[in-house]
Input
Amino acid sequence: MASVLLNSAWVDCDIGVNASANLGSLVVASTVMATVSTSVWALLRWATGRRRLLKPFLLTTATGVLLLWPFMAFWHAPDGYPVSTCPPDNVPPWWPTWLPL
Output
């Protein structure tokens, strides 16, 4: 989900040269998000007991959703990147206005 949001922001704001050039950054960003999610899952499985699956699943999903904001805030567009389609702060038009990037 994080990679899809990030890619959509990059496409809407014309960030990068093309999809091939952005692939490396998407792989790094996705790997970081997957590592954090897997670590949270393992920690919650250990904390709640190995027989329970629903509680770690729900808590890991909630953590992933909460991590989407800092993920997008860090990766959405470099500061000072010359973007004419998403002025003034390189924020995509579909991003909620109440949640700053």
